[in-house]
Design goal:
Length: about 500
């Protein structure tokens, strides 16, 4: 049995396959029209050409001109790749002894012999056969169809060819005859949404003798071909980490958290809109940048311009750190990005850019806009586990519904985080004030007190514990003493 692996030309897919496809075997690539089968096949042949291997594309469903156009749309050339068009003038010439004009009217035996003749002439190492739906039409019976596919399989194996056979699933939900014959099966699917871009997924149904990564993997079909994002498995990325606490940039907040932020942990910032969650996250990011650490900030909610302006007004200008490369802010449209693509982006930031802090702002937009909501929590859990094992500090922002009184979230995400900061509004002395408290911390012995919180001209300010107030978390605080508040010291002074 051949032990060498054949690259598909798609790095993410090779990763899923454990390095590539075992050479000199026949593989089935199935999917409905528009899922990217032809593009995958062309990438497969392009990779072969780059490796010095001869490639052959046998088409019964598309013309050579159409294939050339598809390749050109991705910036590719088919030079050096033999394209044999069974519906062209060449395939219908007198030399080919064809007298009819439509592939459905070809004799199956003639078609098979034409393919074999061409392989004997060209001696390719890689072959693409497009598509099996035409073969199915010619066969007229399942028995005859299976026999012809088996004959082609034996023929290709004897000549050392690695073969991709494309199938548009016109025969129903998965042709089990083909699945049993093929050495491996790749399934491509395209899911339409009520709003936003279609999401595509890939799954390896079988691959004999290879330990591949099972499950569904997101992929994009853009100019340049398929970009596959392997499903993240956190346990594969564990490493030793430095567990020394790092500062949030605010001494009182560090005290509240039990000393600061713990590397290899996640902190959830939960509270109503406008309470200061994003500003607190920015303050932590700026503090990390000042230490020389790199931060990746993923912005789903607001625009980059708004974030810059807001941060500058609070004395937390991120521009210098963005220019130096210590803070990278990526604005994402959740309607256009898949969960797998997002996880891949985070992974590349960690492994290629050396990021040590990740901020996701916010979880609400991420969870609402992406399809497959019931799996998103599991994917987020896997992503957080990966970041923890790599020793990163992760900040998650979650907006709660309401302003005062009872707060609620669309989903309960508190169990995902190692620590949780709770932000609340409360009414006192005729003003709408803000409070902050630590709900839980798995890593540090945190304060149990509720402290006053505000955003001032110098960023985040955390006051003393609200010991003279009762009912702060309910939003209806009752004053029981003489405790001063943060705003009490803000006395206007005459200009000089």
């Amino acid at each position: 049995m051949p032990s060498s692996l054949t690259s598909t030309g798609i790095p993410g897919l090779d990763d899923i396959l454990g390095g590539g496809l075992p050479a000199q075997h026949l593989y089935l690539v199935e999917g409905t029209p528009g899922t990217g089968k032809t593009t995958l096949a062309l990438q497969f042949l392009q990779a072969g050409r780059a490796a010095g291997e001869r490639g052959l594309y046998v088409t019964l469903s598309e013309t050579s001109e159409e294939l050339t156009e598809v390749a050109a749309s991705h910036g590719w050339s088919l030079e050096g790749i033999e394209v044999y068009d069974l519906v062209s003038d060449e395939g219908l010439s007198e030399e080919a002894e064809q007298t009819v004009l439509h592939p459905s009217e070809f004799e199956l035996g003639e078609t098979t012999r034409d393919v074999m003749r061409l392989v004997n002439e060209q001696k390719p190492q890689r072959v693409v056969f497009d598509s099996l739906s035409e073969m199915r039409l010619l066969a007229q019976s399942a028995l005859r169809y299976r026999r012809q596919i088996l004959a082609l399989k034996r023929f290709f194996a004897q000549r050392g060819c690695t073969v991709l056979m494309l199938d548009d699933r016109s025969g129903g939900d998965g042709d089990q005859h083909l699945h049993s014959i093929a050495h491996g099966v790749l399934h491509l699917e395209q899911n339409t949404n009520d709003y936003g871009a279609d999401k595509r997924r890939l799954r390896v149904v079988k691959l004999r003798g290879v330990k591949f990564r099972s499950g569904e993997h997101d992929f994009n079909l853009d100019r340049g071909g398929l970009q596959v994002f392997p499903r993240l498995v956190a346990s594969e990325h564990e490493q030793r980490i430095d567990e020394r606490l790092v500062s949030t940039g605010t001494a009182a907040l560090d005290t509240l958290l039990g000393g600061g932020l713990t590397p290899g942990s996640s902190l959830l910032l939960a509270g109503p809109a406008g309470v200061g969650k994003t500003t607190t996250a920015i303050s932590c990011a700026v503090a990390a940048a000042r230490r020389g650490s790199k931060v990746a900030y993923y912005l789903f909610d607001e625009g980059l311009g708004t974030l810059r302006q807001r941060s500058r007004a609070l004395g937390l200008d991120v521009e210098p750190y963005m220019s130096s490369g210590h803070i990278t802010i990526r604005t994402l449209d959740p309607a256009e990005v898949s969960p797998g693509q997002f996880a891949h982006s985070v992974r590349m930031a960690v492994e290629q850019d050396g990021v040590q802090m990740v901020v996701i702002d916010s979880l609400n937009a991420y969870l609402h806009a992406m399809p497959g909501g019931k799996y998103l929590i599991l994917q987020m859990h896997e992503l957080l586990a990966y970041l923890n094992l790599r020793g990163l500090t992760t900040l998650l922002i979650l907006s709660l519904h309401g302003t005062v009184g009872e707060m609620r979230a669309d989903v309960d995400l508190s169990y995902l985080s190692d620590a949780m900061l709770n932000f609340r509004y409360f009414e006192a002395r005729g003003n709408l004030l803000k409070a902050i408290s630590v709900i839980k911390s798995r890593t540090n012995a945190h304060e149990q007190s509720i402290r006053e919180f505000r955003l001032g001209p110098h960023g985040v300010e955390v006051g003393k514990a609200l010991s003279d107030f009762q009912g702060v978390l309910s939003g209806a605080a009752r004053y029981t003493g003489t405790q001063p508040l943060l705003g009490d010291s803000d006395i206007a002074t005459p200009s000089a």
